[in-house]
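During the reporting period the student researcher (J.K.) took over the structure-prediction task from the postdoctoral fellow and processed the backlog of single-chain submissions. One of the processed entries is reproduced below for the supervisory committee.
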Amino acid sequence: MEEFEISLLVKKIAKGDSAAFKLFFDKLYPRMYRLAFFYVKSDVLSEELVSDIFLKVWNNRKKLPEVKKLDFYLYQAVKNQSLTYLKKESQLSTIDLPALKSMRIEYSEPESIMIARELAVKIESAISELPDKCEMIFRLVREEEMSYKEVAELMDISSKTVENQMSIAIKKLKATLDAYQNSTSDSSHISLMFLLLLLDILSRSN
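J.K. obtained the following structure tokens:
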């Protein structure tokens, strides 16, 4: 669904247009269902979780135009709903995956710890500044540990598109790391962190 089309539907839905909501539901439901199924591995439960989220969207339709990055908002809602269910069922010990977790490195020196923390903030900022689709794809690969193929199926796009968007994200992060590296004398840890990130991403490209 194009961003312009989403915008038009959202405006109509906010005014109570049920036909617009049905179109919105029909176009986005398959993606949200696939994400729910990625977590809960149940057809019936995935349908229930996603239907409940869309019901909440309809009940709060007047506030819908205020939501930024609607696709990502819905993905997050599905993810949180699914993980909440799994936690209640004692199937999951933690409800979230820390961003960039594979980049964590144990440091003994306070200066190195400070650099790692500053860099983590800069990386998160760089990710948030990516174009919406690019950011969503990157987070699904990095934070949800999905393969390129899984992301392509989830978002109804080609694996090549996922690959291209990940390339854009990596270049952006590389530029952020290079800029930070030039501003600090401790560059070895930064280079290692980028290498770990790159290797981790490449491992999911198949």
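The committee noted the following: The chain has a mean pLDDT of 77.
J.K. will present the remaining backlog at the next meeting.
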